[in-house]
Design a protein that fits this description.
With 421 residues, the protein is of the alpha/beta class. It folds into three domains: 73 residues, Ubiquitin-like (UB roll) (Roll); 119 residues, Alpha-Beta Plaits; 159 residues, NADH:ubiquinone oxidoreductase-like, 20kDa subunit (Rossmann fold, 3-Layer(aba) Sandwich), CATH 3.40.50. The chain contains twelve helices and 17 strands. Bound molecules: iron/sulfur cluster (SF4) (2 copies). The site of one iron/sulfur cluster (SF4) has 12 residues, from helix 3.
């Protein structure tokens, strides 16, 4: 018979079996400890550290703790919650996580944790890593720029004759997972798909496989808590016209967020009652004629003009809202960040298949805005007050946020309101 021990979790007295894994004990008693590298069949790895808890005053990875008599465990203190969030933010900043184009979106454990923690943007500068994307294996693609080095694949995926398929190579910040091509060939299609599903992010892909389920039916689409952003609790003062003033702009984006903005159909009439638009592609007013209550920014900064416009919006708008992934993290345009600018220009203007024969010129004139070396998220250029995630965010979602900010109302965003399709 297993010995029973007394422990406490966040001040609650619990009787459990000695040696039982803390994540499991906590779950059995209704306390959620988030994990990423931890996997049901594996010995706990303790690599990702998002399960960090405090045991008898000392911080340690929760997944590696075995229950022992007298343990006093803290899980949900403000500083531990903050640390977990910071770890996820750093993982986002370190890798190239372009969720709108990622095959794993909706089924990704890291993305789900980010939603759950109410994370809309990382406060750390984006690294835009340029690690190898390996298409050579027979069935798989290894997208090292999304890998969080959790080690699940290294520990778990073996051939039937006992050989490793994945291993860590190099050291320090250069560490990455490498696939053994010979061993990978031995895996059946089903085994390859299992390896892809085992990866908590979209680093292991199986060629030819895409999301089979539409948005709304994926694993994490309907899970998670509602996100409750902090909202000012006093309404903004209206302008003399009795309305709120809104400015909008599209920087390096596809204009999809603005199209979504208009998708509100006849409810737009309600908005027009409440607010008027100043500088915006919707009004075609080219220069600010008034100070705005809110500025909505679509797109990131890809050239010098984007930076100029964004800084002007910061000055002329009391509250600045980045809406859509391009404004929040660079989005699709930022996918050029791991190719040198010169190569991008050569591909676009000299060597691309759509280049007109004989027109071998990279445009350059003092009137043409200068391209930046990278595409930058808006918060790396100016202070952003609020973020509306999605690609594009839905019209209802955008207006719900804007109206709540204008009127100083609390609002929450249900998990399934986020849209990345
Ligand atoms: S792996 Fe894909 S879905 Fe998951 S966080 Fe990264 S980009 Fe987003
Ligand atoms: S490829 Fe996936 S499973 Fe393997 S270490 Fe990276 S994140 Fe973990």
């Amino acid at each position: 018979m297993t010995d029973k021990v007394n422990i406490s979790i966040d001040g609650r007295h619990i009787v459990t079996e000695a040696g039982k894994n803390l994540v499991t004990v906590a779950k059995e008693h209704g306390v959620y400890i988030p994990t990423l590298c931890y996997f049901r069949n594996l010995n706990p790895l303790g690599t990702c550290r998002i399960c960090t808890v405090r045991v008898n005053g000392k911080d340690t990875t929760g997944c590696t703790v075995k229950a022992a008599g007298g343990m006093e465990i803290e899980v949900n203190t403000p500083d531990l919650l903050e640390n977990r969030k910071a770890i996820i933010e750093m993982l986002y900043a370190e890798g190239n996580h372009f969720c709108p184009t990622c095959e794993k979106s909706g089924n990704c454990e890291m993305q789900n944790h980010a939603y759950d923690m109410g994370l809309t943007v990382t406060r750390y500068p984006q690294v835009f890593s340029a690690k190898n994307v390996d298409f050579t294996p027979k069935r798989m693609i290894m997208e090292s720029n999304r890998c969080i080095l959790c080690k699940r694949c290294v520990e778990e995926v073996k051939t039937r004759d006992g050989y490793d398929v994945f291993s860590f190579v190099q050291r320090g910040v250069k560490t990455r997972v490498q696939i053994d091509y010979e061993q990978e060939e031995k895996l059946s299609e089903a085994e390859a798909i299992r390896a892809m599903n085992l990866c908590p992010v979209g680093a292991i892909l199986v060629k030819g496989m895409i999301q089979e389920q539409p948005f709304g039916e994926r694993k994490y689409d309907l899970l998670g808590k509602d996100i409750k952003p902090v909202v000012r609790n006093e309404s903004l003062r209206k302008a003399d016209s009795g309305k709120y003033i809104i400015g909008t702009t599209s920087l390096a984006g596809c204009f999809g967020c603005h199209m979504s903005l208009l998708d509100i159909d006849t409810d737009l009439l309600d908005i027009v009652e409440l607010a008027e638009f100043n500088k915006s592609p919707l009004t075609d007013i080219k220069k600010f004629t008034k100070q705005c209550h809110i500025g909505l920014i679509e797109g990131g900064c890809s050239n010098s003009e984007n930076v100029h416009v964004l800084k002007e919006f910061r000055k002329k708008c009391d509250i600045l809202v980045a809406f859509g992934e391009c404004a929040i993290m660079g989005g699709i345009p930022a996918m050029r960040n791991f190719v040198p600018l010169q190569e991008c220009l050569e591909e676009a203007y000299l060597n691309g298949i759509t280049t007109e024969i004989g027109a071998h010129v990279v445009p350059g004139h003092e009137d043409i805005p200068k391209m930046l070396n990278n595409v930058y998220p808006c918060n790396e250029v100016v202070k952003i007050d609020y973020y509306i995630p999605g690609c594009p965010p839905s019209a209802q979602h955008i207006w719900k946020v804007v109206k709540s900010i204008l009127l100083g109302e609390e609002f929450s965003i249900a998990h399934d309101e986020f849209k990345y399709d």
